[in-house]
Write a structure and sequence with these properties.
Chain B: InterPro entries: G-protein_gamma (IPR001770), G-protein_gamma-like_dom (IPR015898), GGL_sf (IPR036284). The complex is a heterodimer of chains A (about 350) and B (about 70). With about 350 residues, chain A is mainly beta. Helices cover about 10% and strands about 45% of the residues of chain A. Chain A has one domain: Methylamine Dehydrogenase, Chain H (7 Propeller), CATH 2.130.10.10. Classes of the chains: A mainly beta (about 350), B mainly alpha (about 70).
Amino acid sequence: MASDGELKVTSPVESIEALTKEADSLKAKLEEERQKLNDVALSTVADRLEVITYLNIKPRRVLKGHQAKVLCSDWSPDKRHIVSSSQDGKMIIWDAFTTNKEHAVTMPTTWVMACAYAPSGNLVACGGLDNKVTVYPLSLEEDVSTKKKTVGTHTSYMSCCTFPNSDQQILTGSGDSTCALWDVESGQLLQNFHGHAGDVMALDLAPSETGNTFVSGSCDRMVLIWDMRTGQCVQSFEGHQSDINSVKFHPSGDAVATGSDDSTCRLFDLRADKEVAIYSKESIIFGVNSVDFSVSGRLLFAGYNDYTVNVWDSLKCVRVTLLYGHENRVSCLQVSPDGTALSTGSWDYTLRVWA
Amino acid sequence: MDMMISNLQQQRQITEQLRREAAIKRINVSQAVVDIMKFINEHEQEDCLLVGFSSQKANPFREKSSCTLL
């Protein structure tokens, strides 16, 4: 910087001011627009629906084998197998029907925070504190870890991953506050997604098979909707008062549900471009780690730090029931691909299947 | 200096993002809610966790009975 005071670069300062001013007015305009269209509450419209009085969901299986907190799990497309990952550094492939372990892979790291099945069911991806996403082709003939392959590396922990549409690509979210799309074969970074100002904790793909949209949730309390092809953030939602731990598309594809450390779940509608529901109770004071919808979208399952799973009526915004069983935080949960079962994973080292 | 440029770039990105979001077409919440309810209504019968199974035999995770016919 020149010592001459006259040589100050003033234009960027002015531009920042102009841009900030424009941003402020755009924010106000956005808020006004959203409020204008906020003509009714979801629970009011749902008032005429019948109350869900009874659910016959029972604990059916307990999967024991991890030696530390279960951090993530994912159903196989075959609706029978489950992959889980744990703080103990292991990834286990379970036959959920028999509760047998088909594979147990030791990762070169503890806190394996994310795992996912590929659409073919022949490949799984996982990673965590190693900052990497590694894929393992599943074969019954040989040791799975001999064929492992590191696909991508973040500059901080990998918190979530999923295969969009095929076995050829993996989408990851990271503590480095970015999401990334990787080519499995070459390990090439195909697209980077910048926009969050905090650790990305969760992501989910839009349900449409041709969809190129995904949602991410972060410790910056923001929900962002992304276009996978352009890498651009197309929509953003705020409202949560603390870290967002889980995001999930409604099966209709028109809304996303979130779970947060602020002890609430919320529903954001993409077309109304705003929050349309909040699932909370005064008695619920613990954080939400994971959410998922039943296949119709009527039920929202949420796993909490108080060891329970709350089942919400997504329309009436009331709690239908609680699922008790776990003896520590419920860290992950997922409805099976055909909607016949719910899997839950916990810091009590076990996974459970409910149906 | 670098700091200033990066601040400028950052602010430009924020503003551009807001411009894009301001241009989004929106619908009334009432319309959005009706569409969500319609979707749910059309799929409720397939939702086993909601409506249960037609018979327990249809539940892949039912308890195994103590004797099975081979």
